[in-house]
Fold TetR family transcriptional regulator.
Amino acid sequence: MRARPYATTNPHRLAAALLQVAARSGLDSASVREVASEAGVSIGAVQHHFPTKDEMLAFAFRALADRVLGRLSSTDPDIDPSRTLFAALSQLLPLDEQRASEAQVMAAFAVRAATSPPLGAIRHATLFTMRTGLSAVLIRMGTPEPETRATLLLAAVNGLALDAIASPALYPPEFLTHSLHTQIQLALADG
Amino acid sequence: MRARPYATTNPHRLAAALLQVAARSGLDSASVREVASEAGVSIGAVQHHFPTKDEMLAFAFRALADRVLGRLSSTDPDIDPSRTLFAALSQLLPLDEQRASEAQVMAAFAVRAATSPPLGAIRHATLFTMRTGLSAVLIRMGTPEPETRATLLLAAVNGLALDAIASPALYPPEFLTHSLHTQIQLALADG
């Protein structure tokens, strides 16, 4: 019987290790060597699952985007649509430790997507899904210019997250939630 | 007479070279070696001006932030405040090649600022200056909640820029300018 040296890990565990390294030290630090060390496996075990760093990054970005999109789309619809929008969009703000890590790594991937076509394709699909979902809510409500206002809701949240991760003192959680409530109120206004 | 091997370059020229490398290949690629090659000088010449990569990055980030803030603050005030706001904030959107490069590198610095205290301090000061300037305009106009709405104007623009750099097909220039006009209109609404 042959040994199965890679049976102790799997791509999802390696992606989780990559996200931990990236949240702590930035995405640049998420090398194959660092990810192996974080996951407690050999470099060969990482390379077995991901022959190149680009493949490892793409898998981790898709896993992160899927996790966040899953939370967004499983938001329970409230009788008040502004509360439904708040529950969904607050998933993207750094309001606790987990969301702060996610926001930071999502922004890092978004930046890297500008110079990496495979990551760009994942980013594009994620933004498209989010914008379409938000537009659908605004269309059902009869909001003027639903497509533009959905884009602005998403942009305001992504921008608040980007601004907050580097300057938490300027963006405490209660200010972030108040700002999101205000943007939703503006987006749902008539005229 | 001694040779002056570093007289052919200066920190500003090196910062410009760094921004070119970062816009083309990402901020990770902006190593001392790459910046020296882009500027056509020796690695020693770069190290003479910037003993560490962190110092080089901080100088380049400050130079970029100063350039963008300079353009924002030199916007001619229009009789219509929404036009003044548009002229200032459109400086931050990737509406032409120069602003696209700037937006991409600004976002890359913003992400890196989350894990680098010296870059974080520059990002903090830049955001504070922008938010304060926008608040002042809204306060003069008697807009409700000027501080929150100024934060949202800035966040929406930073978010649009972040979303557009990785997905230009979802964010063509005319859609970006329309979205900015809409956000300004929402920010200036009563109630």
Chain B is about 75% helix and 0% strand. Residues 73 and 83 of chain B are 14 Å apart (CA to CA). The two ends of chain B are 73 Å apart (CA to CA). Chain B has two domains: 1-51, 64-188.
